[in-house]
């Protein structure tokens, strides 16, 4: 622990608290709240792979989350797939949608705010499609039958659901870490810093960026699959609505985009403070979006590197090898 930065220690402590959460707050309501935070952590980690590592800022990440959930539901209800196999298929569909969005955008040279708007448009198109056709359940959404068996990717108790979600967060973090430490991750970072220079150095930026969207899509879709299997229901406003996209973006940005652990810390802070705001001012319609907007402005103004960046500045300076966010994000 001595060699860890303050931010890494904070997140390590947070993961320990996550593990103890079912023992301290074993009620259905609190466990449901904890599960929701964990699934949003996975979604934020997925956003961070493309937006944080590669600089491909998505405003419509719900397109990937929703595709995973809807695909898994349809594979089970209409094709008779085993839920575990349907979950894997849902993740693959989310990854392919991410790659498709990337391929269409990058083939025409779209980047920056133009790419962000394309992702937003894709999410909206998928929302309309999901709410308009019978095979997607239309406005009623899709409901899974209650089975509560491990073989059906349903769990007898909320505690087991919670532990499954926690395991998914850890797995997503390991995938994120593996990407960041690989040559692929180095290429993504180079493209984020200067895409034109990366091209000049011989990096196939199109292929790397599409692969980054593929990886981000798979992780984000995993959150959608887990959401479906936990709550046994999905509809278009939940799956493809703006709230999912905003929470993915904010979780990673608040914690520290481009860091490994930032999306987890940022998502926990976002939801914890959000609940405090609800208790203080009530749960009026749209109050969460107002809160998200104000919080984003404050973070961009005062903590452009996120909370992990703040922790990094608070930590001991170790000269040129110090782990600065602007140099090597932990």
UniProtKB/TrEMBL annotation:
Keyword Ubl conjugation applies: no
Keywords carried by this UniProt record: Cell membrane, Membrane, Transmembrane, Transmembrane helix
Membrane topology value: Multi-pass membrane protein
Entry superkingdom: Bacteria
InterPro entries in the record: ABC_transp_permease, LivM-like
Pfam families (UniProt xref): BPD_transp_2 (PF02653)
Cell compartment(s), UniProt: Cell membrane
One of the record's GO molecular function terms: branched-chain amino acid transmembrane transporter activity
One term under GO cellular component: plasma membrane
TM region(s), chain numbering: 36-55, 62-79, 85-106, 113-133, 162-179, 208-228, 248-270, 282-303
Protein name per the record: Amino acid/amide ABC transporter membrane protein 2 (HAAT family)
Organism: Pusillimonas noertemannii
Lineage, highest ranks first: Bacteria, Pseudomonadati, Pseudomonadota, Betaproteobacteria, Burkholderiales
């Amino acid at each position: 622990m001595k060699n860890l930065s303050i931010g890494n220690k904070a997140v390590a402590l947070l993961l320990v608290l996550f593990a103890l959460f079912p023992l301290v707050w074993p009620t259905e309501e609190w466990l449901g709240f904890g599960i929701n935070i964990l699934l949003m952590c996975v979604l934020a980690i997925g956003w961070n792979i493309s937006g944080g590592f590669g600089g491909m800022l998505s405003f419509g990440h719900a397109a990937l989350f929703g595709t995973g959930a809807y695909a898994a539901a349809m594979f089970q209800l209409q094709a008779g797939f085993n839920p575990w196999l349907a979950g894997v298929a849902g993740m693959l569909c989310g990854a392919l949608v991410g790659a498709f969005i990337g391929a269409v955008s990058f083939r025409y040279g779209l980047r920056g705010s133009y790419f962000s708007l394309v992702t937003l448009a894709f999410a909206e198109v998928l929302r309309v499609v999901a709410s308009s056709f019978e095979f997607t359940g239309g406005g009623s959404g899709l409901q899974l039958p209650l089975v509560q068996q491990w073989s059906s990717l349903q769990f007898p108790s909320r505690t087991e659901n919670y532990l499954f979600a926690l395991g998914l967060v850890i797995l997503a973090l390991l995938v994120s870490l593996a990407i960041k430490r690989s040559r692929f991750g180095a290429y993504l970072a180079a493209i984020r810093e200067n895409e034109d220079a990366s091209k000049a150095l011989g990096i196939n930026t199109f292929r790397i960026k599409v692969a980054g969207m593929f990886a981000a899509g798979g992780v984000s879709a995993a959150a959608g699959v887990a959401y479906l299997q936990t709550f046994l229901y999905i509809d278009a406003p939940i799956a493809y609505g703006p709230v999912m996209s905003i929470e993915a973006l904010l979780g990673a940005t608040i914690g520290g985009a481009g860091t490994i652990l930032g999306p987890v810390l940022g998502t926990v802070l976002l939801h914890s403070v959000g609940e405090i705001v609800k208790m203080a001012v009530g749960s009026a319609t749209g109050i969460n979006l107002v809160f998200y907007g104000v919080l984003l402005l404050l973070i961009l103004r005062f903590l452009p590197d996120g909370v992990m960046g703040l922790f990094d500045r608070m930590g001991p300076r170790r000269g040129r090898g110090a782990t600065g966010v602007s140099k090597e994000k932990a």
